[in-house]
Design brief:
Number of strands: 0
Number of domains: 1
Structural class: mainly alpha
Largest sheet: none
Order of helices and strands: HHH
């Protein structure tokens, strides 16, 4: 079993500007976190998924999407 190391090099860093309120700083921080999709990545990694189950999900999503497009085109 391989364990993937988490690198902290891409951590979000926000420095306070002159005469900036805490709320504005927090807003900028939240925006950066959302842009770098850190929260969604953490949620995705919260529970381990085997490569097989990931592949099966992708295949089922493709089937569902193709079925929807065929229904839409009829």
């Amino acid at each position: 079993m391989r364990i993937k190391k988490i690198s902290w090099s891409n951590m979000v860093e926000v420095k306070i500007k002159d005469d900036e309120s805490f709320e504005a700083l927090l807003r900028r921080f939240s925006k950066k976190v959302q842009q770098e999709s850190i929260v969604s990545e953490a949620r995705r990694r919260q529970n381990f998924e085997s490569p097989t189950s990931i592949r099966k999900k992708k295949i089922s999503n493709k089937k569902r999407k193709s079925y929807r497009t065929t229904l839409k085109n009829q």
